[in-house]
Design a protein that fits this description.
about 35% strand; 4-stranded antiparallel beta sheet; 1 helix; elongated; about 5% helix; 3-stranded antiparallel beta sheet; mainly beta; single chain
Length: about 150
């Protein structure tokens, strides 16, 4: 009996050549690659003394592509874009449509003032400013020593 070292980085490392290729072609694009994960944009969330800040990286979109909504304590950012390139009077052997969509939801803290949320989109970054309620703001005060 021969022991074969398993190396997931090496193509066709199976004992049966082509066996892995079958599963890669069927399942690879959907379940096992980073391509699926990359469709969700990265986000940075930070906090200052009087605001929460959300920055979502979504280059290539327009500000009208975004839907931002708040329901109870849930902030939801979503997009859906379709691009159909069709030419009249042609017979196609193959048509490719571009479709992309994502939804990101965030639970807001009770201290966020949802009535005053503002959003802007510039250079591929969607920025949301969530002011804190007055009673939640950190107040710095100097204490005089006597």
């Amino acid at each position: 009996m021969t022991l074969v070292k398993f190396n997931p980085e090496k193509k066709n490392s199976s004992l049966l050549p082509g066996f892995n290729d079958i599963f890669e072609s069927v399942l690879g694009d959907t379940f096992f690659t980073d391509r699926r994960l990359s469709s969700v944009p990265a986000v940075n969330i930070s906090e200052s003394a009087d605001h929460y800040h959300i920055e979502l990286a979504a280059p290539g979109l327009k500000k009208d592509d975004f839907r931002v909504s708040v329901e109870r304590d849930m902030l939801t950012i979503s997009t859906e874009t379709k691009n159909e390139n069709l030419s009249e009077g042609r017979t196609y052997n193959r048509k490719e449509y571009s479709y992309s969509a994502f939804t990101r939801s965030f639970t807001l803290p009770e201290s966020a003032d949802i009535e005053k949320i503002s959003a802007s989109y510039n250079d591929g970054i969607l920025k949301l400013e969530l002011p804190k309620k007055e009673e939640a703001k950190v107040v710095a005060k100097q204490i005089e020593i006597q």
